[in-house]
Write a structure and sequence with these properties.
Blueprint (H helix, E strand, L loop, with lengths): L1 E3 L5 E4 L20 E6 L5 E6 L1 H4 L8 H12 L4 H24 L2
Antiparallel strand pairs: 1-2, 1-3, 3-4
């Protein structure tokens, strides 16, 4: 795992843990976006960009780690229950329209 700035200078470099996680200390005087690059060998590569604005501590917060954890939760995909509920709503809507068309003729 590498962390690079806008000038492609390596800020941090390291290995992920056994669960694929990687953490690093954000530089004190960061003046650019950061890109995290994961090279999983065999041509598999992933990039994540963290904007400069996201790296700055929001006003009124003392714990940047808590803010990042909250952001991480928001970025996680929807739960299985939400997906199933969404599909159910689509079916209800589709059959509801069919029912309405049938009974309004």
């Amino acid at each position: 795992m590498s962390v690079v700035n806008d000038k492609d200078e390596v800020i941090q470099k390291g290995l992920t843990d056994d669960q694929g996680r990687y953490s690093f200390r954000i530089p004190e005087k960061i003046n650019s976006d950061l890109t995290l690059i994961l090279d999983a060998s065999q041509g598999h590569k992933a990039h994540w960009k963290i904007s400069k604005d996201e790296l700055e501590k929001p006003a009124g917060t003392d714990d940047l780690k808590a803010v990042m954890e909250k952001k991480e939760k928001l970025e996680q995909g929807p739960s299985v229950y939400k997906i199933i509920a969404g599909i159910g709503i689509i079916f209800l809507f589709a059959f509801g329209l069919k029912f309405i068309k049938r009974h309004t003729r």
